[in-house]
Write a structure and sequence with these properties.
This is DNA repair photolyase. It is built from 11 helices and 13 strands. By secondary structure, the chain is of the alpha/beta class. The chain has one domain: TIM Barrel (Alpha-Beta Barrel), CATH 3.20.20.70. The chain has a 6-stranded parallel β-sheet with strand order 2-5-6-7-8-9, sandwiched between helices. The longest helix is centred in the C-terminal third of the chain and has 15 residues. The mean pLDDT is 95. Bound molecules: iron/sulfur cluster (SF4). The site of iron/sulfur cluster has 9 residues, from loops.
Length: 291
């Protein structure tokens, strides 16, 4: 890891990434794409050393409370967070200043901060988002090798349910010819139904690949799935959006089950929900985003 002082921490939509790069090792990682211009090794995590200080300044100067998002580009619960506790300190500020939180991770390290999630959720709204792509535990260890597997992530979702904390499952990406099966989708859906998730986010049954991300993905396909790289090349060429041949059937299945179980799966609806600040103490819902 290496440290860097940055100029700002919150994006225009109030999202933040405390770390840059990731060590979870997902073979399909979009954050590796060259368009993001990461200048260091992806596993050599850049730590925004003044993140906490900048966040406090930003929260103090906001005229209105809003949801703060984190986890879009780098997991806030990387193993180094165990020691550095920067995510924890940022959560403490969000709690102290009465803001809401929409946090995304694949790691059960989030349970360390349950006290803060609970407290934020009491005053405002806390939404925990977990990515579940692969029901088969052995396959999951290949696709997402350095983080807890789907079964454990589903346990985290269940713990959040017990705590009354709202959850959203990111059911993406699903890899063509690897885990784009009804069995896999039904397995993930079962976890979501048991955990009473608020929503399931998916864009299509497939994956996106672009420069940087594609090379790493193909290298891992060669290591773990002989012949698969050629199959992808022949089927998809250099396409950015890679659709499973089962896209329609599987997407219909997810939508049907969500309707039956009253799980929200509309992308816009879910993003709106995660941006909608709630002031539970005042019993009032405030505006979308921090307009
Ligand atoms: S957790 Fe996200 S950022 Fe990290 S390797 Fe996996 S896909 Fe990439």
């Amino acid at each position: 890891m290496h440290e860097k002082e940055v100029k700002s921490i919150l994006s225009a939509q109030n999202g933040m990434n405390i770390y840059r790069g990731c060590t979870h090792g997902c073979i399909y990682c979009d954050a590796r794409s060259t368009c993001y211009q990461i200048q260091h090794d992806f596993e050599d995590i850049e730590v925004k050393s003044n993140a906490v200080e900048l966040l406090e300044k930003a929260l103090r100067s906001k005229r209105k409370k809003c949801m703060i998002g984190t986890g879009a580009m780098s997991d806030p619960y990387l193993p180094i967070e165990n020691k550095l506790q920067l995510t924890r300190q940022c959560l403490e500020l969000i709690d102290e200043y009465g803001f809401g939180l929409a946090i995304q991770t694949k790691s059960d390290l989030i349970l360390r901060d349950l006290d803060l999630l609970r407290s934020i959720n009491k005053k405002s709204k806390c939404v925990v988002q977990m990515t579940l792509t692969t029901y088969d535990e052995e396959l999951c260890k290949i696709l997402e090798p350095n983080v807890c597997t789907t079964k454990r992530r589903a346990e985290v979702l269940n713990i959040m349910k017990e705590e009354g904390i709202s959850t959203v499952c990111w059911m993406t990406p699903i890899l063509p010819f690897i885990n784009d099966t009804e069995e896999n989708i039904r397995g993930i859906l079962d976890y979501c139904i048991k955990a009473k998730v608020y929503g399931i986010l998916f864009f299509h049954i497939g994956v996106t690949l672009r420069d940087g991300d594609r090379q790493y993905f193909y290298q891992k396909l060669e290591e773990h799935f002989p012949g698969m790289k050629e199959k992808y090349r022949k089927t998809y060429g250099n396409d950015y959006e890679i659709f499973s041949p089962n896209n329609k059937n599987l997407a219909d299945l997810v939508r049907r089950e969500c309707r039956k179980q009253r799980i929200v799966c509309g992308t816009k609806q879910l993003f709106d929900y995660m941006h909608l600040y709630e002031d539970k103490q005042a019993g009032v819902q405030l505006s979308l985003f921090d307009l």
